[in-house]
Amino acid sequence: MSDALERPGPARQDRNVRRATDYIAQHYAEPLRLETVASVAGFTPTYFSRLFRKREGVPFGKYVTAFRIERAKQLLASTDLDASRIAELSGFGTPQYFSAQFPPLAGVTPLTWRRGPARANSKNT
After folding, report:
1. pLDDT digits (tens, 9 = 90+) for 26-53
2. Whole-angstrom Cα distance, residue 91 to residue 83?
3. What are the tens digits of pLDDT across the range 79-103?
4. Can you give the residue ranges of every domain in the chain?
């Protein structure tokens, strides 16, 4: 709290970026435009983009993609839904885009991910 009193600008920025990340968490399955999320955070898109990257360590688009991949991992491990439905529920526009984005971030294909965590989860329960 004292930090916020000493540095009201950065504290407000942190709060507004947190508002943006909360918005992403609530709306990840929908199309997310930088301009919309910047508006939610109360910043211009250009300023928000710079601030977001500084605060989160990655550009806005990469953050959203990584968030969606994490959600997809959860669905792959805990459901029998097909990849097309998981892509849709995770906010990817097409199953092909989902399949292209998954391996670079997860290190394996969606099917390989499903096989790995599913077996591990069934052994631990």
Report:
1. 999 999 999 999 999 999 999 999 999 9
2. 12
3. 999 999 999 999 999 999 999 999 9
4. 1-57, 60-125
For 54-71, b/e burial (b = at least 16 CB within 10 A) is ebeeeebeebbbebbbeb
Instruction: List the structure tokens of 43.
Output: 């910043």
What CATH superfamily classification does 60-125 receive? Homeodomain-like (1.10.10.60)
Which residues are within 8 A (CB) of 94 and not within 5 positions of it... i.e. 6 or more apart? 87
Dig out the tokens for 37 from the structure: 């999320």
Structural contact between residues 90 and 75, judged by C-beta atoms closer than 8 angstroms: yes
Mutual angle of helices 60-78 and 95-106, in 10-degree steps:
100
Q: CA 102, CA 52: separation in Å to the nearest integer?
A: 23
Reported for 6-11, long-range contacts at CB under 8 A and 24+ positions apart, including other chains, are none
Nearest alpha-carbon partner for 90 in 101, 119, 111, 59 = 101
Query: pTM of this prediction?
Result: 0.83
Q: Which of 26, 27, 47 is nearest to 35 (CA)?
A: 47
